Amino acid sequence: METLIVHPKTKEQLAALKAFIKALKIDFSTEKGPYNPEFVEKILQGREDIKNGKGVKIAPEDLWK
What we know:
- By secondary structure, this protein is mostly helical.
- 43% of the residues lie in helices and 0% in strands.
- The chain has one domain.
- The chain has helices spanning 11-23, 37-51.
- The longest helix has 15 residues, at 37-51.
- The termini are far apart.
């Protein structure tokens, strides 16, 4: 048999696909994808900001005061 890989673009599409598959009593499994692209963009922007001198440095010992 074949394996299908689908890429829903919204939570609504994902929910509809899961409901359809369950209604047909088809076995399926899920896998988590990579990090959320918005989250990754924020991390990369933060790193770029640090390189450009934006941000504040805090010594580790100052975190516990």
